[in-house]
Amino acid sequence: MSPVAQAGRAPQAASAAAKRPAHDTPATSRTIVAFCCRECAYAAADASANARTPLPATVRLVLMPCTGRVSPLHLLEALAGGADGAMVAGCLEGECHYREGNFNAIDRVLFVQRLLDSVGVEPERVRMFTMSAGEPPKFVAAVREMDRTIGDLPPLARS
Ligand code: FES
């Protein structure tokens, strides 16, 4: 399994989500922060906007020079600051304009997923996606997938 596929899924099959009670907060009130590499994901987002492809209203885009600049603290602060999920969207594996920034991002996403899991928070709240600038539909699909995932989870408790 590729590192992106690993970072894109929960590290453990039995997530904490299954143990939580049903929730009644509408999924549309959730917030997802998407850290997007300028070279690919943000360009794909831009192209999808130009094509007037609607994105879920839950997503907030953050322009990054490269996913290698996304630190675990960015992801954790997004969750602590009110987001219900955070995604990192970068160039395809082997295509990072800064050589290995996306590989570093994959490692950091996996680290944060393990950290969340260790404290009883659903690890799937943080995910990694890759795409090229010429794949706006892939970006839209990633955001919609993240939106579905977060919509199926209860609101993130911050006690
Ligand atoms: Fe896109 Fe590094 S430049 S992930």
Compile the SSE list and pairings.
Blueprint: H1 3-7, E1 32-37, H2 41-50, E2 59-64, H3 72-80, E3 85-90, H4 101-118, E4 126-130, H5 136-151
Parallel strand pairs: 1-2, 1-3, 3-4
Helix pairs in contact: 2-5
The protein binds FE2/S2 (inorganic) cluster.
The site of FE2/S2 (inorganic) cluster has 13 residues, from α4.
Please describe what this structure looks like.
The protein has a 4-stranded parallel β-sheet with strand order 2-1-3-4, sandwiched between helices. The N and C termini lie far apart (35 Å). Helix content is 36%, strand content 14%. It is built from 5 helices and 4 strands, in the order H-E-H-E-H-E-H-E-H. It is an alpha/beta fold and 159 residues long. Residues 10-22 have low confidence and may be disordered. The chain has a single domain (27-152), classed as Lumazine/riboflavin synthase (Rossmann fold), CATH 3.40.50. Bound molecules: FE2/S2 (inorganic) cluster (FES). The site of FE2/S2 (inorganic) cluster has 13 residues, from helix 4.
